[in-house]
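Researcher: Quick one. four chains, 486 residues in total.
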Amino acid sequence: MSRKPSSLPSTPCLSSTKEAREDDARNRLLQAGLEVFAKCGFEAASTRMLASKAGVNLAAIPYYFGGKEGLYHAVIQAITDRIHRHMQPAIERAQALLEDEHASKSEILDLLGMMLPGPIALFASPEARYFGPLIANEQQQPTSAFPILYEGYVRRVHEIAARLVGRYLDIPEDSPEAIIRTHAVAGQMFVFLGARATILRRLGCDSFSEENVRLIQHIVAEQAKAALKGSLPMTHQARENQP
Amino acid sequence: MSRKPSSLPSTPCLSSTKEAREDDARNRLLQAGLEVFAKCGFEAASTRMLASKAGVNLAAIPYYFGGKEGLYHAVIQAITDRIHRHMQPAIERAQALLEDEHASKSEILDLLGMMLPGPIALFASPEARYFGPLIANEQQQPTSAFPILYEGYVRRVHEIAARLVGRYLDIPEDSPEAIIRTHAVAGQMFVFLGARATILRRLGCDSFSEENVRLIQHIVAEQAKAALKGSLPMTHQARENQP
DNA sequence: GTCTATAGTCGGATAGAC
DNA sequence: GTCTATCCGACTATAGAC
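Model:
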């Protein structure tokens, strides 16, 4: 009763790229780390838990990752890569639009609205069910792994979003106002990740149904656009389709 | 070098009510628990840290609270009481308005807008600088202490807010749509608590200045109202001042 | 009520066989 | 590369003096 991988049922391999396909100890530890660190947090996760969940020997953790912390960093790096890959198309679309001097306000607003359902779908997907706790923990008690997340995708995404907001509202993209407005808008999405326990209890369920996810995507996109549109100076709201 | 309370400088006593005024071991442990659990999380906080930060003996934790977990529960109970007290006036105002059959939509919207700056001020206050991590951790990895928070104020506040949103949008207050819309709106506030590390890095500072807090309060209230107003069916938006 | 001293457990990392 | 066995430090809780 020592060799079985016990319980690694559904979740697909995190790094599904070409080369890293083997079901070896290293990958099994990465997957187990994702689950265990998400469920317990870094401190409460013990190397014994990690090894037994992965179905590998305890000594494999220092061997492959230099220790528990090294495994944690590798897990954070893996989810950062995954999210970055998921966001890249939207980032490129936004960059293209921002280079267009003649983009209309309504085009900018629509693009901002379209940037929200993607992350919601990702974070609600089974593949990503462990991302939330890991990200939220790094927000509250940033560790040495926080820069991996921040430089990996957070900074890029927020800067692009703030540029769009700045363009839409005719304010400098790096002003506190643009940054705060962008954050507030993003908060309409983020709260479903960050206040997960409360919303699920309010909805009376244990996890988000597909129907709930669609509803959240629709409502967040709608309200996000409305929030910014309503923040336009009055004179702009009438002629919103001007560049 | 064993008796000094070492570092309990500024933060005022958590339970400033009449009777509990003594600077005794029990209160010092509560305050230290607030700080240490917030900074490290439950698991990483050791009884040695807690006792030395409080300037009391290690054995005082089992003595007064039955153990580390009991101290944690007491800390969560204390912040729940604090937040509940802070929210009570707004809750009562909302209840009064909801009992008024003739309240206009714009009155309801204004009240919703007014419910947001309060919590923002509280969570940004020095007194409450440790609330965020504790609350966020319970959202991500709810422990046996989560019901203390949820039943203590979260449920009440969210139900009231959802009733206001439902009234404003003419949808049932307990429908998924009302619950999700309410959550998304609240997210514009919550994100400043839950994604603290990111927003501070974007703003280029270590903590929120008073000016930032005022800006956040203004923007969140404005965007929250706009988000809901923009979600009204078109036909309503013209005659918004009708009941 | 507060202390010291210690019991008993579990943590992460390592040594060294295979 | 993978295993077993073990070290050693840190943890929480308790016993019992004062």
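Chain A touches chain B through 60 residues (CB under 8 Å).
Researcher: Thanks, that's what I needed.
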